Amino acid sequence: MTVSGPATLSPATKLSGRAFYESIGSPKKIVAPMVDQSELAWRKLSRRLGADLCYTPMLHARLFVTQEKYRNAMFDALDGHSSTDRPLVVQFCANEPDMLLQAAKLVEKQCDAVDLNLGCPQNIARRGHYGSFLQDDWDLIYKLINNLHVNLSIPVTAKIRIFPSREKTLAYARHVLSAGAQILTVHGRTREMKGQQTGLADWKLIRYLREQLPPETVIFANGNILYHEDINRCLEFTGVDAVMSAEGNLYNPAIFVKPVTYKEPIPADCESIEELFPRVDRILREYFEILKGTPAEASHSAAKSHMFRLLRPFLSQHTAIRAEIAAINRNSTIDDFRMITEHVEEIVRVLFADDNVKEKDIIRRSDQSSDQSGAEYKDVPYWRVQPYFRPVNGQILFGGKRPLEDGKDDNEKQKEQKKT
Fold first, then answer.
1. What's the chain's average pLDDT?
2. Structural domains of the chain ordered from first start
């Protein structure tokens, strides 16, 4: 792998904590590390649309060191380029301190920091003993982080999940910071909250950490970011330094545009509707043009998944496009992605040739709302990108909760039933 990029600081002058955070521009809007999804082409698109800082996909430290094919596919000379892909944090999953350090050394001249994944809740992480399944081995976590802190020329950061107990979560956060993590990202969900049991992230617990940890501690919050205004809402509610988005960014990369104040309904000719919820044909075209100019293998491997997510509401109405995307395989070329893009553009062109489209092309607030901090949900036309709401027990819910007549969510009801 060719290593390029600006010279890094020596350990003696390495910035830490808030000084490091300020040196990368005090970012507020952050693209989360995601398995195979926050790769170079997607980061370029997200940066164009307002992201201040991006993380790479989660990279497997041992494979990164021992398998050149994997390393070259996941991270090449264009990753972390000083003019197109900074600031950048490279995230690794690992359970061997020396192997993690070797992996980090391979990228330290192409990024601004290295992050340890302590949040992945998937079964593959359980089997491999990494991610959130290191929560039970605090000694190993300390060794992993501290080894990087002592031996890297750039800072180490960490992304964690919470425990059910706020006191244990606070002790855990302090432990991670004491090992040398210079920024702490807190995903406000427990290890068990995944898939159909994802539910709402706990902003109250994140706020508790912010209040209990020293003011100079840099904290990022992750969870519950569905719309662009949720970024400011989270910053205000939790008091953290920045907000990270994963699924919200994947389904609508325009989630990071500057905040726009608007009233309901948004007129069809209002500029903000296109800023906040771009038409699928326009966002797909912009993504395709970036993909076309990004030869990285990881970007092309991820394109199929990105198209499915960008077009999710559109595909339910135009199933032929779904079939075209499903047919993409390792032998597909950039022309196959071009044909899909052009097909979508033609369908939307016909839609907007309808004289009545202006009456339909508006955003309305839904009757559904979150009980945590005043979030409102919106009905968005299917030809525009929009958030994805995970199904819970087979039902599509708003924000992961089913509104109940008494205003209490399912977890609260279950707790009351156990008491009785």
1. 87
2. 16-256 (3.20.20.70)
